[in-house]
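Exercise 7b. Backbone tokens:
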């Protein structure tokens, strides 16, 4: 049956594990909840044909979707790409549903999605309501009398088919975005920070003197700032560990903080 674009859902994700969840969600929505009803979910890595210009395809899908689902987890709650796609849908007045998988709504408090009504995947009742809202948005493709039953079936199938994926997302620690003062304007980075800040610098660096006022303002606004002073050799080791030779800022898993703690122990010893 040909696809009806007016019933298209854009499923946004970031991170390899969350991608597996997004693909599973696509399958359940298309094949279990709305089978043969012209509901199509777009998930970038499975729906962009080989050889197609990736950016053009993403932009095109953002324009024609009627609904968006953001698959949010500790793997991507600080990922800029999620917020870009959410902004793309918001700019076109496309209703967007943040679906939390293994993370808490408090994690979004200082993000661009802070304050937005979210759906907690662990709560079956919320998943059923999300299904009913999607159905209503698509002009009641399913009779309201069977929505709950079908949503429960889809929810059970998702938990069964993706049990290991969901378990991983529950246990994964969040990422943080790391920048080097060599390649970025530290003042601008701190000024624009919406989450807690970790600053590491070398003995003799006048970092606090240069950015003290901005840091103080962040503290007043409830942003936590952690500061670690390292000797020059240890600082260069950290710089290489995080960024290599002039590597750009990137998402880095919080497990790296274990190494920071090792350095702190050495400093205190």
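Sequence design result:
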């Amino acid at each position: 049956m040909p696809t009806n674009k007016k019933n298209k859902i854009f499923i946004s994700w970031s991170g390899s594990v969350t991608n597996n969840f997004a693909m599973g969600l696509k399958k359940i929505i298309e094949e279990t909840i709305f089978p043969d009803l012209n509901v199509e979910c777009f998930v970038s890595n499975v729906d962009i044909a080989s050889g197609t210009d990736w950016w053009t395809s993403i932009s095109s899908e953002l324009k024609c979707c009627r609904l968006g689902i953001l698959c949010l987890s500790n793997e991507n709650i600080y990922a800029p790409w999620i917020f870009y796609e959410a902004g793309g849908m918001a700019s076109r007045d496309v209703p967007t549903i943040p679906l939390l998988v293994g993370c808490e709504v408090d994690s979004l408090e200082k993000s661009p999605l802070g304050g937005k009504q979210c759906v907690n995947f662990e709560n079956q009742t919320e998943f059923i309501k999300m299904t009913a809202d999607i159905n209503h948005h698509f002009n009641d493709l399913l009779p309201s009398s069977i929505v709950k039953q079908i949503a429960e079936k889809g929810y059970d199938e998702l938990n069964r088919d993706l049990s290991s994926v969901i378990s991983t997302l529950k246990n994964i620690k969040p990422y943080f975005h790391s920048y080097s003062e060599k390649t970025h304007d530290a003042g601008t980075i701190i000024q624009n920070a919406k989450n807690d800040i970790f600053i590491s610098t070398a003995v003799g660096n006048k970092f606090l003197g240069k950015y003290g006022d901005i840091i103080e303002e962040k503290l007043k606004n409830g942003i936590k700032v952690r500061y670690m002073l390292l000797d020059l050799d240890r600082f260069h080791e950290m710089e290489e560990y995080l960024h290599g030779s002039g590597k750009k800022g990137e998402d880095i898993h919080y497990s790296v903080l274990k190494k920071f703690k090792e350095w702190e122990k050495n400093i205190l010893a």
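Instructor comment: Residues 37 and 141 are 7 Å apart (CA to CA). The chain is about 50% helix and 15% strand.
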